[in-house]
Amino acid sequence: MIPAIFDYQRAESKDHAISLISEHGDDAKVLAGGHSLIPLMKYRLAAPAVVIDVGRVEELSYVREEGDFLAIGALTRHREIETNELVLTNSGLLAAATKQVGDPQVRHRGTIGGALAHGDPASDIPSAALALRASFIVQSSSGEREITSDDFFTGFLETALEPDELLTEIRVPKMPDATWSFQKFNRRAQDWAIVGASVLVSENQCGVGLVNMDSRPVRATALEQATINGASSEEASELASEGLEPPSDLNASAEYRSHLARVLTKRGLEESGK
């Protein structure tokens, strides 16, 4: 439970953080709230030579309106997101999913950017980002680029972030008239979800992001298309796990996870008025 030896660098600004990441590349890991990285380091599943602490870079903590989307700084704490009026009004699904993260202590320290950059398929936040069709702004010393949520998650604990890039902003489409539901099945309060589902329904659009149903955060695309084509919630939910490879572990078999996905997405669609 003791991490391997590492050097510690604290970034004083966004530009300083990008400079440090550019300097150290693959040898570095970025520390924000620390709830994902530190446990991995304790078990030596991650052993960075350098830890770059960005937790005090206040310029990356904000929620603001920019045209037809909300811009959310990557270091915005979960607690700010779950209580922010702009988020509650324009993206209730994100607020609801964030409220299910850990406990109040975790939500006061953890950040949205950290939860997304970690790329954990068992995390609640990526499922909401996928359902909402969010996109991510990443920056390096050579400039910035925007990555869609569909392209961001590439594998187990893997994302499209390059070694010299920093996730700086999340852009969430404003959908004040959408209906939504966040469903989560776990054994105990605050446990990781055995299966979860973020469901969003708006005019001519359906988004369903799933938790713990593949090696990476994924959308239930077959279910989405069936819903758009007019299928009932019961009919559409039967397609929840189509094309996916849910894991089997001590908590649940792949078959049980597929069953849960059908149950939770049906509930989510019904709560969303489908």
Report on this model:
The chain is an alpha+beta fold and 274 residues long. The protein has three domains: 7-53, Uridine Diphospho-n-acetylenolpyruvylglucosamine Reductase, domain 2 (2-Layer Sandwich); 58-173, Uridine Diphospho-n-acetylenolpyruvylglucosamine Reductase, domain 3; 179-271, Enolase-like, domain 1. The chain is 34% helix and 26% strand. It has twelve helices and 14 strands. The strands form four sheets. The protein has a five-stranded antiparallel sheet. Strands 11-12-13-14 form a four-stranded antiparallel sheet, with helices on both faces. It has a three-stranded parallel sheet with strand order 1-3-2, covered by helices on one side. Strand 4 (63-66) and strand 5 form a beta hairpin. Helix 5 (92-99) packs antiparallel against helix 8 (124-131). The protein is globular, with a radius of gyration of 18 Å. The model has no long low-confidence stretch (mean pLDDT 96).
